[in-house]
Amino acid sequence: MKTWKKVALTGSTVLAVVTLAAYGSSTSSSTSSTNFKGETLTIGTWAGSPQETTAMNTQIKNFEKETGAKIVNRVYTNIDQQLPADFAAKKAPDAFYLNAPSFPLYNKEGILKALDSAAYGSKSDFYSNQLNAFSANGNVYGVPKDVSTLAQFVNLDMLAKIGVKVSDIPTSYEGLISWLPGIQAKLDATYGKGKVVAFGYDQDLARLLPIAKAGNADFILNKGNGNSNLSSSAVLSNLDILSKLVATKAVATPAALGSSNDGEAFGTNKVLMVDDGNWDLQTLAQQYKLTAGKDFTAIPMPTYKGEATTMTYTVGWAESATSKVSALAEKWINYETSNAGMKIDCEGTGVLPTRPDLKSTVVNGNSTLEVFANGLNDGIPQQYGTNLGQVTTSFNNFLPNALSGKITMASAMKQADAQANTAIKNGN
After folding, report:
1. Dihedrals φ, ψ of 381, to 5°?
2. Is the Cβ–Cβ distance between 293 and 307 less than 8 Å?
3. In angstroms, what CA-CA distances link 155 with 8, 199, 393, 413?
4. How confident is residue 10, by pLDDT bands cut at 50, 70 and 90?
């Protein structure tokens, strides 16, 4: 009997508090099977965009035609709450989406099947940092199906009107500190004071993790499985760059600009530049009618202390250890993460491939998208042990108080540690 009490999510922690009963060994058709006619595979996905739904329907249709199997798609509205409940009720899907931040906890619970090479082919087919996000103790427990990275969007029209070139933009956070005040003054003179902010940023550990851990600062002890350590001197030293950014008076969060997200703030011309993901390229083109290369471009994320600060946000396919159709599940995962299946995802939804050999096909000469794709080489996966969720929630709760000047950064992070460690202790 196992007790599941927490699931790490992007920027939050959700309580599931369900009990998972131990299962017997799974059974399946032979792994050498090529014809699965008459078999049914239940998959678990989440409700995404209309484009994602269309892509998934195409993939299901192709797979059913190829194998003769029937696919039942169980679409979750909150997979990290509902999936554990399905495991507890012994009705978990055979294969399901798994976010990289959630993998350490799912794996700790022992509910994931160690996958055979039939599910992924060769490990060398994938970016190593992406496959490693779903691997442990020499075993592969998930295969990355798509990934997104961060870069900086830059408004080319605004840049031209203030007489600045893209090549003038500093390539490090340290360089931005001295550069931004002058740029803000030019924007104020051109558009009116406070009408356009030079630099948009987020107060979320899901974006700021590379800054918090720069120089291998141990912001969560025991490789992410221990207590929160945000108030350590090394982490506080790293976070000082955020205070310096705010002090330039040339930065703002989307919320401070009256926007719900970075894409909206950029698309409505409220910021000159902002860090964002490739997921907003379609939004900028379709909703805001902005053309990459003409109206805006993308440049790599600035470095900090000589280190890359882009993130990788990865989704994989995993198999339930209780699946009764393991060979079919592995066949599905293999198709979804093959060139053919992955190409449908990337071209339909704007995500990036986790296979290097598919990069040139997906980028297809798009220099803006290529900046995001290049981030896969040194991007930091959004993953760090089983306690990242609690620490992220607490960090996000208290960082705004420090950056607004209400309290010191040291006091804010001390309070964040206390809150996170209480949640960790209580298993929340």
Report:
1. -60, 140
2. no
3. 35, 11, 32, 34
4. very low
What is the C-alpha separation between 11 and 262, in angstroms, rounded? 16
What's the pLDDT at 62? 97
Backbone angles phi and psi of 124, in degrees to 5: -70, -10
Helix intervals (H) in 132-232: 156-161, 173-191, 205-212
Alpha-carbon distances of 27 from 38, 329, 386, rounded to whole Å: 16, 12, 30
Spatial distance between the Cα atoms of 312 and 48, rounded to a whole number of angstroms: 19
Rounded distance between C-alpha atoms, residue 166 and residue 155, angstroms? 10
* Cα-based distances in Å from 293 to 67, 109, 370: 42, 47, 12
Q: What is the dihedral of CA 164, 169, 170, 175, to 10 degrees?
A: 50
Integer Cα distance of 292 and 290 in angstroms: 7
- The token pair that represents 266 in the structure block: 């950029």
Q: What is the rounded CA–CA span in Å between residue 268 and residue 228?
A: 38
Grouping H, G, I as helix, E, B as strand and the rest as coil, residue 48 is coil
Rg (CA), the chain: 22
Going by the DSSP 8-state scheme, the letter that residue 72 receives in this structure is E
How many Å separate Cα 327 from the centre of its chain? 29
pLDDT above 70: residue 184: yes
Nearest to 348 by CA among 54, 30, 25, 12: 54
Q: What is the tens place of the pLDDT at every residue in 102-129?
A: 999 999 999 999 999 999 999 999 999 9
